[in-house]
Every structure is written in C-alpha cells, then in structure tokens.
Amino acid sequence: MICTFDQLFEAVRNRPRRTLAVPSAEGGSIVAACAEAYRAGICDTILIGDPAKLDALRQAHARDCDGLRVEAEPDPDRAVARALTLIRAGEANLLMKGKTDTPTLLKAVLDADTGLRTGRVLSHVAVVAMPAYPRLMLWTDGGINIRPTLDVRLDMIRNAAEFAGKLGVAVPNVALLSAMEKINPKMEETLDYERILKLHQDTPVAPATIEGPIAMDVALSAESARIKEIDSRIAGVADIFVTPEISACNIAVKALIYLAGAQAAGLVVGARVPIVLLSRSDDAGTKLRSIALGAIWG
Fold first, then answer.
1. How far apart (Å, rounded) are the C-alpha atoms in residues 199 and 219?
2. First to last CA, the chain
3. Exposed, middle or buried: residue 101 (CB in 10 Å: 0-12, 13-18, 19+)?
4. CA-CA distance, 290 to 278, in Å (whole number)?
5. What is the spatial distance between Cα 254 and Cα 263, in angstroms, rounded to a whole number?
6. Alpha-carbon torsion (18, 24, 27, 29), positive or negative
7. Measured between alpha carbons, how far is 116 from 98 in angstroms, rounded to an integer?
8. C-alpha distances in angstroms, 287 versus 96, 97, 144, 146?
9. What is the rounded distance in angstroms from the CA atom of residue 225 to the CA atom of residue 227?
10. In which element (H, E) is residue 45 found?
C-alpha cells in the first residue's frame, strides 16, 4: 500500500514511462512540472500550444529534457481536440489541463463522439498526505460535482475506490461525511447515505467498507468513536472521505494544505484516462505529484 508521496514516486519509477498530453501548455509551472516528471522517469510530455511561447518556456525550464515535444496549435479549442486525438490514438495516456479553462476541457472530454467518456460520472479526487495521518487521504468531490445526486455519489465512490486500488488499497474504508452520525431528513446527504448503505448491503457498490453518515472526528479517530459509543470499523483508518457537496470538500482540502502543511495532488477520474485538473494557484510540486498519480493509474 502506498502511504506517502515518496512511496508513490518510487512506485512510478518502476513502471513503464507514460506520455502526458497538455493542451494550451504555455505556463511556467506547467512546463517545469513536466520537465521534472521527465527527469524523475515518470513520463514524456506532448506540449500543445503556441510554439514560440513553448520553445521559450522549454529554454527556461526544460533545456535538458528531450522528452518534451512541442505540437503547434495556438487555438485553445483545437489544442484540446488535438490532445484527445492523441489519447484516442494511443500516443498519449494522460491528460493535463493547461491554460484552457475547465469548462472547455471537460466539454470536450464528455463529447459523445470525440471525447473520452466511459459511461461513468467524472469526479475529482484530491489526495492528501499529512504527518499526523498514517495513510493517504482521498477526498471527493471538490472540483466537479456541485451538489451530487444519489447516482452521482455512487459513481464518486466507485471512482475513488478504483483510485485507492491503484494505490494498493484493495478494500478501502469509505467515510460518508456529515455533521452527525444520525439520519436527519433536513440533511439531504444523510438520506442518500442511508440509501447507499442499503444498496451496498444488497449488491456492493465497490470493493470497499462503507460507513455513514459519519462525523469527521469519528472518521479520523478511533478514540472519538469509543467516546461517542459508535461501533465503527473505519474510525481512524478511513481512506476515502466523501463530502456532502463541492464546497465542503474544497474548503477542507485547502485548509489542510494552508493550515496544516499537507501535501496534495489531484485527478479527475471516470474518463478513459486520468486527468490532471488543478487550481490556478497550485505550484509545480503539486502538479508533479498529480502527474505521478496519473502515471500510477496505468
């Protein structure tokens, strides 16, 4: 089981090198992360965009990297289309958002004819590492699904469980987070969680141990579960944290990063290939960790 990002990098180095496609790649931290991924033996990269700008960025950030190839396509929409063509043709097996805006990228990915759809809902999974927690934390969904329906929550769990499997967690512990452990008709997520557990008992949603609704203190601490007299198999050892809606997840992960010094990375999963989709403020280190997560997928 991969419990740290150092272990992730070590695992990726022992796998065949992947190829990353980045449409509208004209960004210093983007090229720097791709260069570092090449140096670390993680992947080659196809940078798609304005060739003059990309050549200048390569000179500044990746002069020693032969594994960064430039494809000339300055138009953002056509750059995305080119990246998807490369993936469908097998010339690339990872996708990373460059300067293209997120709606444009996802619209192309979801196109029924030329996209990368699989039939499953796309969802974002943030992976967080903290010294105070003994394993990687997978948070979903802080980037795609605003107020997920029951069916969307089910696919979020499936996507995150598959993700955990790529990290060596065969049967992840899934915490369906809420403010309390009881069903409350005024809290819609608790009603969905009740339905999810019933479905999971009849036909497993995913190879996972799922509990909810569960408060954050219980998910993180077996002692909290003992004090609150809650019988939990996942208290203190949760792998996947499913939040009620997008803001809760986004706020929680950013608080861990900025207040607790956590390291983070993230992917959009549910498409044919993993997609590195990050905040504009994310630095090259965060992008590099996310690329490594994408590479472990294969």
1. 21
2. 16
3. exposed
4. 9
5. 10
6. negative
7. 17
8. 9, 10, 18, 23
9. 6
10. strand 43-49
Amino acid at the residue 98: G
Fill in the DSSP letter of residue 29: H
- Assign residue 107 a region (left: φ > 0; alpha: ψ between -120 and 50; beta: otherwise): alpha
State the Cα angle at 167 between 163 and 170, rounded to 5°: 80
Pairwise CA distance, residues 164 & 54, whole Å: 35
Tokens 């709606």 locate to 103
Sheet (strand 173-177) strand order: 68-72, 43-49, 18-23, 94-96, 275-276, 263-269, 123-129, 137-140, 240-242, 173-177, 209-214
pLDDT in tens, 161-186: 999 999 999 999 999 999 999 999 99
* Domains of the chain: residue spans and CATH: 12-117 (3.40.50.10950), 118-270 (3.40.718.10)
pTM for the structure as a whole: 0.93
128, containing H or E segment:
strand 123-129
- Alpha carbon distance 205, 276 (integer Å): 25
- 266 - beta bridge partners? 126
> What are 79's two structure tokens?
């750059």
Query: Tokens representing 259?
Result: 């207040």
Q: Which two tokens stand for residue 206?
A: 């995913």
Give the pLDDT band of residue 265 (cuts 50, 70, 90).
Answer: very high
**Residue (of 252, 244, 297) closest to 273 by Cα position:** 297
The number of angstroms, rounded, from the C-alpha of 172 to the middle of its chain's C-alpha atoms is 16
Q: Is 257 helix (H, G, I), strand (E, B) or coil?
A: helix
